Amino acid sequence: GEFLAEYRIPRLPEVANPIGCGDTASAVLLSEIINGNGFFDAFRCALGAASANAETMTPAEFDADRAAALASMIEVVKSHFKY
């Protein structure tokens, strides 16, 4: 069946610069999918990377360890939906 997912993202302690977060999320999402990760987990990783990017002043730059740590804190709640 079809699924919906709700991503519960923790609040960042401080946002330095949101510029580049969308580009970061898109690049990580595509990379994760190409590497065989399922969509829901790939998007969780993309959100973690985008969040890590928001903590830096440089657009589209992030620490991979911080991104992984943030991604691990994101709760994914899946549910079925009907048309």
Task: Explain this structure.
It is a single chain. This protein has a two-stranded antiparallel sheet. The protein is α+β, with helices and mostly antiparallel strands. It is built from three helices and two strands, in the order βαααβ. Helix 1 packs antiparallel against helix 2 and helix 2 packs across helix 3. The chain is globular and about 40 Å long. Helix content is 47%, strand content 14%.
Estimated helix fraction: 40-55%
Largest sheet: 2 strands, antiparallel
Mean pLDDT: 94
User: How would you write the strand order of the largest sheet?
Assistant: 1-2
For this structure, the quaternary state is single chain
Written as H for each helix and E for each strand, in order along the chain, the element string is: EHHHE
Strand content: 5-15%
Structural class: alpha+beta
Q: What is the rounded Rg?
A: 13 Å
Distance between the termini: 11 Å
Q: What is the molecular shape?
A: globular
Catalogue the unreliable spans.
Answer: none
Number of helical segments with 4 or more residues: 3
- Based on DSSP secondary structure assignment, what is the total number of beta strands? 2
Show the helix and strand layout:
Elements: E1 3-8, H1 21-34, H2 39-54, H3 64-72, E2 75-80
Antiparallel strand pairs: 1-2
Helix pairs in contact: 1-2, 2-3
What does this entry show, briefly?
The chain has 83 residues and is α+β, with helices and mostly antiparallel strands. Helix content is 47%, strand content 14%. Helix 1 packs antiparallel against helix 2 and helix 2 packs across helix 3.
